[in-house]
Amino acid sequence: MNRILCILLILLLILPLQGCKFKDIDLKLFVMAVGIDEAENNPNKLSVTLKIAIPQGDPKKAEEQVQIITEEGDTIAEIVRVMKSRIDKELDFGHCKAVLFGEKYARKNIREAADWTMRRRDIQLTIYTAVARPSAKEVLNVQPVTERIPANSILLALSKDGTESPFIVPPAFAYVLQRRIDERGADPILALVEKKSDQEFLINKSYLFDKSKAVTELEPEETRIYNLLSLKNLKTSLNVDYQGLKYAYNIEKSSAKYKIITPTNGTPYIEYKIKILAEVEESHSGDIFNEKLLRDLSAAAGNQLNERVERTLSKIHQAKCDPLGWGLRYQSRHWNNSEEWKEWEDLSERLEFHVKCDVDIKYTGMVR
Amino acid sequence: MVKNKYFYYLFLINALINVVNFVPRGLIAQRFSGAMMAIVISVPIGLLLMYLCIKMMSKFPGEGIPEIFNANYPKPVTKFMLFGHTLLWYIAGLITLIAFVDVTMRYITSDVSPLLIMVGFLVVVCLAIRVTAESILYALEVVIIINVPIIIYVLFKALLNPMFSWDAVMQVITYSLKAPSYGSISYATFIFTGYLNLAVFNRAFKKIRVRHIWMIGVVGFLVLIASVLIPIGYQGTIGVERHVYPWFSTADVLRTKNFIVERVLFFFYFTYLTLSLVSSIVHWHVALEMLKGVFLTEEKKKRKIDPEWWMILAFCIVAFFAMRTNQFFRDRAGLLFLDIRLAAEFFLIASVYLAYKRREAKKRE
């Protein structure tokens, strides 16, 4: 009896030995980035661009081989299937790290594209999303000379693993995008990737979304202020004018906190408190720093930053977007669940901003 | 005979496996209508049931429910009750297995047929449920000790991520004052249900005594809070509803730089693979013993094939049929199971109490 059972078991264990059901790596093409645009001639159709890497033995040899294909159709899924008959190997989205939405497409509605990235099981939730100008196709066609792995340069910039530019907003992963599209009281904000030339792109602006529609563009300066408000310890320098001369300071530590304050009679306001610890990086005066100058410079820097932050906040407010999640914060601090959203909608119309920047320039750098 | 500490492992395996068994999904569906309150209420209810069960089972040292029932109840009643419990424990293990086959399909090997995955799982589970209660408890200990540090690492990783939205968590907490439904309480008390496996595993304990039962309450509460609120922190208060397996989506969101694999999902998957297999083994072991209590009470004839094998074969066949159900049916069945389970728990403890009374009465005569 036992012998028969053992034999049966062994036979059963042989079943999975038929080998990998997967396609081997040399039969695969890895999609590195997906671009989604409105079709050129027909606004009701989509155009999808895939940037595909061809597997290679030695990553040190910087001869990247890349194929870019574009196809038009009604749904992204359908377009991908059509593409499959234009290539010789199996498409693999497992290593796809970025989805770019063309500007025109983003201004219309990105809901379907966001849904596709969330729903497809081989696409990770930690994929980067961004808006591309003039179109996703053209941005994906940019081939920077420094790029070693296909589409890697965009990823390095968006993820801040490579360059840490203060003008790039925190990564909008697919799940963050979807959560903000769904959430009451928060809106997505995506980095804007622009094509400068065939070998260079530029990421220093961002796009404010009203749920799934791109609405307003934030200029580089405003994007940096947004980063200052949403991130801890932003790596950047800022300029100050003091007595007609220019100075620049580098931020060592920064933190921003806010409170939504609703006085019983009077306009509701958001009070931002920003704390910055900094050092002087550049001085155009030529004088040797003393304690008083450093203190005055700090005060001037605080005042000037106040203004810049207030300008940015009121622009975001006028766009009727909520990239900083004020609405969610308001709801999360109030226990009257059924009325809180109405209250917020009513209150957010006449919101004011009070900003208190506390810039403390502590060091003068290596020289005095 | 094993030490009393093995009781904690029985509790822990159920508490950890809730992520696969639809508990977060049931609670998340009711996050705006009393799930938070249900979590708070479930702690005293779960602890009370646990205390009563331990108290009752300690009156029957070294005996399982089949022996207790057979000795103290008329035969038809015993058979009926044991069969009912068999079904519940069998379904508990089955839900874990099917959910895990589904997770494997979705996240790991989308090209392999689900039937083959199920065969693989069933081979492991069916061979393991026949061994003695002690051996299963030892295996349980090993698996838990290996996996708990990994789970704690994932939890820390999840809570320290800057993308985690504490505002979303706070927003759900402000819904704490809503009155909970029976359903949400029964989902939440699943965390504490591990003690019920004593029904058969009591055979391995000399005379069960559990110290520091409040600690189980604290751990259970934290586990519940974490398994509901962490997915909300990542997927948002509204968006979390979209996810079929909220916890696997949450693990997919996490990245680690200090490990060979970048995606936390993969080692989270393997952790939960071992935990769910062991959990199914525990549940099906109980189911098998109960079923043996129904059919193999008297004469122990030497048969050519051990009748256990027929029971295991039945388990497998039903499992393959259950594979044909669709996603929404499984959701509903999973949640329905959790609902029935709470009532059955009360029933089981009451019936053990009655058995105890009857035994005492018999002794006095």
TrEMBL record, chain B:
The chain crosses the membrane at residues 7-28, 34-54, 80-100, 112-129, 136-156, 184-201, 213-234, 266-288, 309-329, 335-356. It comes from the Bacteria. The keyword Ubl conjugation does not apply. It holds the Pfam family Spore_permease. Keywords: Membrane, Transmembrane, Transmembrane helix. InterPro entries: Spore_GerAB (IPR004761). GO terms for cellular component: membrane. GO terms for biological process: spore germination. This is Uncharacterized protein.
